Amino acid sequence: MAPSKPEPPASGCSTPCTPETPGVFFTEFLEDGTFKHFGGFGNFRVPKGSLVLLKLFEGTQDKPSLGCISTDPLGNPQQLESSSDSLGNRTFFLHADRPGPYNIRLSYHGAPSSGELSTAASSPCGDKQQQQQQQQQQQQDLGPVNVIIVDPVLTINGKPIPAEGLSVQTALSRCLGGVKRWWRMFQHVKDMGYNMVHFTPLQTVGESGSCYSLANQLKIDSFFFRDEPEEGLEGEGSSKTLNPREGLQTLAAAVNMLEKELGILSATDLVLNHTASNSEWLREHPEAG
After folding, report:
1. What's the confidence (pLDDT) of residue 230?
2. What is the CATH number of domain 155-284?
3. 233 CA to centre of own chain
4. Where does the pLDDT of residue 5 fall: very low under 50, low under 70, confident under 90, or very high at 90 and above?
5. Looking at residue 96, what is its pLDDT?
6. Where do the record's region annotations for Disordered lie (predicted)?
7. pLDDT digits (tens, 9 = 90+) for 175-206
8. H/E/C letters for each residue in the chain?
9. Is the pTM of this model over 0.85?
10. Where does CATH 2.60.40.10 sit in the chain?
11. Which residue pairs from 115-120 have beta carbons closer than 8 angstroms and sit at least 24 positions apart in sequence?
């Protein structure tokens, strides 16, 4: 995606669009409704917080375009705001505020609004054949899908780091012991040049002991808040019982320590769909088992 040198957008745009503004990107629609790829192929990638300007030149489309629909990473469609110049050329504004894929499509005569799209997608009622006909008609009135990938903006102690600059080490969380030991456990990880640790799930495990079979998806396992024995002494230590908020605060302090003192970011699996047989969720909803 090419850096832009556009005219300023219509008033109300929160990001000023000048050639000196970082994080402003530009592309244009071809006659078939796809993006023009400047110097390559594949999806466009922009960092979170970018403003993407999508140019539609007058007279380039086979049929009149009414607008441009963006579907964000959570599946929410919306009509993009736009401005037009004296020649009838239109510029659509995409504010890339959420990491993930955005689907971009031109809408033509008879195309549904973003609200109609959302309602049609969620409605379970109505004649199935009629719904299929409506969906086919909607597809005919919408252009092809263009994908823009919005990357998260990562920093280590305030210094930006690109995604390709990450060097990740996976850690089996329950082999690490309590968070009080993490600093000395990860000192050698820093010395080997890693700048991110991927933790296996930290939530409360079920009776099997597997970190991918959880008894409580909403609570950090008390295993990680143990009073560790003194250096060189045998023993497992004893676990503290913390409420969910205290557990998250303690874990957050450990994660912040890894970044500030060792320059290491943290990532973990967020397991929500693996439930242990002794989970309270199953006791409350036995039909789910």
Report:
1. 46
2. 3.30.750
3. 44
4. very low
5. 93
6. 113-141
7. 988 888 888 889 999 999 999 999 999 999 99
8. CEECCCCCCCCCCCCCCCCCCCCEEEEEECCCCCECCCCCCCCEEEECCEEEEEEECCCCCCCCEEEEEEECCCCCEEECEEEECCCCCEEEEEEECCCEEEEEEEEECCCCCHHHHHHHHHCCCCCHHHHHHHHHHHHHCECCCEEEEEECCEEECCEEECHHHCCEEEECHHHCCCHHHHHHHHHHHHHCCCCEEEECCCEEECCCCCCCCEEEEEEECHHHHEECCCCCCCCCCEECCCCHHHHHHHHHHHHHHHHHHHCCEEEECCCCCCECCCCHHHHHCHHHC
9. no
10. 24-110+138-151
11. 117/69, 117/77, 118/76, 118/77
* Token duo for residue 240: 């503290």
- Axis crossing angle, helix 182-191 with helix 244-262, rounded to the nearest 10: 30
